[in-house]
Specification:
Layout (H helix, E strand, L loop, with lengths): L17 E7 L4 E7 L4 E5 L5 E8 L2 E5 L2 E5 L4 E4 L5 E4 L6 E8 L3
């Protein structure tokens, strides 16, 4: 599968963080998480899935376990399985990240 114009597949929602699927296989999922300013993905845990986040545009406040940081375009974040994590777009611009999760379910 070849995906062209990844960022062009983003779906933004004024009410909440939006998601778009890019690819789904038996061993891997890739998608986009799109945040308007002020939107967030609250703290949560993927018990049996590792998750990577590659920032495409904008900035986000990220929490991974006890670690906190501000990430921007080109930054990569690992959310290991079983570790609580969250993301928030402080604004003023939109935030877009490619998410890769393995295994996908």
């Amino acid at each position: 599968m070849i995906v062209i114009d990844v960022a062009g597949r983003a779906k933004f929602d004024p009410e909440r963080m939006a998601k778009a699927t890019l690819a789904l296989g038996d061993q891997l999922f890739a998608g986009l998480n799109a945040f308007e300013p002020g939107q967030e993905q609250p703290r949560h845990i993927h018990e049996h899935q590792d998750k990577l986040c590659l920032v495409l545009t904008g900035r986000a406040e990220v929490q991974v376990g006890d670690e906190h940081g501000l990430v921007g375009p080109g930054d990569l974040v690992l959310f290991p399985a079983g570790v609580e994590h969250s993301m928030r777009n402080p604004g003023p611009e939109r935030f877009l990240a490619m998410i890769v999760i393995a295994p996908p379910r």
